[in-house]
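Inputs:
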Amino acid sequence: MSRKIYKLHPISAIINFLKGLKELIIPIGIILMSRFFNQSEGMDFWTDLLPLIIIGVPVLFYLISGIMKWLTFIYWFEDGELRVEYGLFIKKKRYIPFDRIQALNYKEGIFHQLLGLVLVTVETAGNTDGKPEVELTAVTKEAAMQVDEEMGISKRKARLIEEDVGLEAKNKINVEETGKLIHKMSNKDLLILASTSNSIGVVIAGIAAILAQFSEYIPYDWIYEEIRMFVQFGIIIVLFTIIICFLVAWLLSIAITFLSYYGFSVTEESGRIIVTRGLLEKKKLTIPLNRVQAIKIVENPLRQLLGLASVTVESAGGGAIGEKEKKMILFPLIKKQQLFPVLNELLPQFELDVTLTTPPKRARSFFFRMKLLWLIPVVGLCSYFYYPYGFLSILLIIPLILLGVWQFHTTGCAIKHNQLTIVYRIISKVTFLVEKKRLQVVVRKQSYFQNRRKLISIQGTVMSGITGATAKVSHLNEDDADLVLNWFEHEKKAKPIE
Amino acid sequence: MIDLRNVPIYQIPRKGLTVWRLYGVIGSVITLFVATGVFLSTQWQNWPNYIYYIVFGVVFLEAIATIWLIPNIRWNHWRYEVREHEIEIQSGLFVVKRTLIPMIRVQHVDTAQGPLLKKYNLSNISISTAATTHTIPMLISEDADLLRARISELARVAEDDV
């Protein structure tokens, strides 16, 4: 392979610089503020200049280091590895074999979009601080595609060497490049997504928080006066206002959803899942199919009612896929009937069709016991502080018991061949699918009371991000639970290497 | 196939219980200091007397719990077993937790020893997988070293794919 060396686009010097500046915003702000307030005091030339120096030196430092990083940063492809080198005094070299790459992500900020560039981040399983291993700050789209292709080439070579790959895979090589569209979201889907998401609640809470912040500026006396008038207008107007509030929250939620999920599409291309999304900031995430650790199907109550679900993928690639999301959203919203064929096509190793082992009848009370225990101090405090009405908080028992019973009816687990399926509910119903070879640890938990009723909770952990992802199925029969542990234990007669 | 699982065989050495109790003593002494502080300020500030009783009641209860009760229960529950293909650890106070770690998932094994443990010639051994870390505490140092060597040897045999 020829060793051709690539450089980043010059704009990355500026981006580096701005990124450094971002960290300085707070100190600069403080210095400017203090200057602003100290105006009145008499100052000589030097004290006048000092803050400027304090600001100026780091700014200059970041400018130079930004440029230096760009000047020294080179990357190339060799021996099936992505190799990166940078640094002026301390040369840093990082070589990443392509088959160790967990995820390849593209992101286009506003800067990038103007110049037709992309930010490429590369992640392996080794990152512990949540930062990607390699970040190509700004490269042209062609160069970004090239990283992708080089990875594909080396993957394909590796695959050809394996003997048990049949004709099918070779055919795939001929067809490749185009990629197969697995799932695409229409605008209507996005609308439903926004309307059924929990983020409406978040938006309402956000508005409330902002209002609370400004509460001291709100002329309450005036408002009370207004409200008196208001009530006279009758209940209809009150209702109307509430509806308006919800409408605003709903519209905001739609706007947020459209910003981050616009044009959402999932494609499969030579053994990788590629997810593209975003309106202003376009994001493209790539995860090799064989790095998928587990999948999680989440149905919140509203969506469960409508037969919809969202699907996330737990991948070994650490928390850096997006700074906020720890796991990758595969399908933000999909009809459950559609899910079966689509998932079967994309990740055939997972089976959705399993019969669940459910907790026994005697476990039912276990699902709300603890919650009721928590309720005691809450009711106690409410009754104490708001005496007559506070005692009504005891009515919370009813929804809590109902929730517990609902959780009891949802919970279950199943073992089919090499797959463990765990279904549980906090409020949303979660179905967790994992292969035996991806499970890191299985834990069996039994409290004193569970021991008396012969019940056991089982918990499985897979690698995902820094802490891993855990699913728990509660209060199973002892026998059923131990079956899971026995299944997870090494089978003596099995082949030495799975 | 449906048989109840046996409890892992090995227990933490008796010395470990002593160290846990010592930890309890240290903790109790610290709270005793805090309590004395509160006591002095009650005297000084003329706070009501019952605070005095509450505070020392708390210290007394804490001492009983952390020196006698909790270490005993813990020590009774702690069990471990290192087999050819997996490690099984049982721990817990009110909730008995049994963890099953396949050898092929073990990434690395550490032993650690603080000053108090060193005095008693004990070590903690911690086993890391790609996602989690599990500790077997209070093992006799030689045993811990042997165990660590054995785990890493067994873990090396199996191939890993994350």
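Strands of chain B lie at 10-11, 79-82, 86-91, 95-102, 108-112, 122-128, 133-140. Flag for discussion at group meeting.
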